[in-house]
Design brief:
alpha/beta, Rossmann fold, 2 domains, five-stranded parallel β-sheet, 11 helices, about 40% helix, globular, binds phosphoric acid mono(formamide)ester
């Protein structure tokens, strides 16, 4: 079995069969990373460049660990310490790295479409590790994989995405992924942080957090991305937290269990209180653990598409 594509540019370009193949491959790698010897030789002689033009903790470490577990050779590039500061272009930067015989590029970039641009100009496999407000495909894959682990089949499962949808690449990738898998998807947040086009993606839109939690099997809670907001979308973080934050009292009054997810980094006390983030409802750290297995699966399957 092979993926239908040689790059992972976005969930939009994957088939349902691709998603299932990635999950089944990740099942095997999850077993590997829980062994005393966590390494397999699958990517020996493959060189991967991790090119991060924007900050990251989870995604960068998770890709690096996934590559090491697969025995790949790795080069790490950080924009802040590079010749970009001297005016070098993205394409020149990547072509220079590739001329050193790199096979795969994992790239995070603040510009939506940057990985698509690279894929048109270079030969290596490109993996999008987050492009601006557009897509974050491996985050959506690890989110869906974590839901699958907890709830099994996706058909008619109710998954709500809360928060700043407008500025979130995680939201768009999750919507594409969950809809392809057959789940019901709703977004919930202030009207100013929900794009007008969302119903066209087959997604319900709501603004009442309590009612949406009552509807949900899973709540994927996103952070307010103040760094991408050039105008004020709501009066204050305090007011946001009061009307759109999720706290323990809200969950305790539901009379049912809702799984709490968050892609990180969490703004504790804004979108989630600590007693929710750290509660028995939360699978936030399982998401991080599953990220390594999912990224191993993506790297392994794309390497076979060279
Ligand atoms: N979830 C996520 O992308 O986190 P980082 O920005 O830390 O990689």
């Amino acid at each position: 079995m092979q993926l239908s594509t040689k790059h992972l540019l976005g969930i939009k370009y994957l088939t349902k069969g691709d998603l299932q193949l990635i999950f089944e491959t990740a099942d095997g790698f999850k077993e590997v990373i829980n062994r005393p010897i966590k390494k397999v030789p699958s990517l020996r002689d493959i060189t991967v460049a991790n090119m991060f033009f924007e900050n990251s903790t989870r995604t960068r470490i998770s890709f690096e660990l996934a590559e090491k577990r697969l025995s790949a050779d790795i080069v790490n590039f950080s924009a802040s310490a590079s010749s970009l500061k001297k005016g070098e272009s993205l394409l020149d930067t990547v072509n220079n790295v590739l001329s050193m015989k790199v096979d795969m590029v994992v790239m995070r970039h603040p510009a939506p479409g940057a990985p698509q641009f690279l894929a048109r100009h270079i030969d290596a496999n490109i993996i999008n590790a987050g492009d601006g407000t557009h897509e974050h495909p491996t985050q959506a894959l690890l989110d869906a994989y974590s839901i699958r682990e907890q709830l099994g089949d996706f058909t008619d499962k109710k998954i709500a995405i809360f928060g700043d949808i407008t500025h979130s690449r995680v939201a768009l990738s999750n919507i594409f992924c969950l809809k392809k898998l057959g789940a019901k998807v709703r977004v919930c947040g202030p009207p100013t942080l929900i794009p007008k086009y969302l119903p066209q993606l087959g997604v319900e839109v709501a603004h009442d957090v309590r009612e949406t939690l009552e509807w949900s099997d899973v709540a994927n809670v996103l952070r307010i991305q103040l760094e991408r907001q050039d105008i004020k979308y709501f009066p204050s973080l305090r007011e946001y937290s009061q009307y759109f934050g999720i706290n323990k009292a809200l969950l305790d009054n539901l009379g049912k269990k809702v799984l709490i997810m968050h892609p990180g980094p969490i703004n504790r006390g804004v979108e989630l209180t600590s007693d929710v983030a750290d509660s028995e409802h939360s699978i936030i750290l399982q998401q991080v653990e599953n990220g390594v297995a999912i990224r191993m699966a993506v790297l392994y399957l794309l390497a076979a598409r060279k």
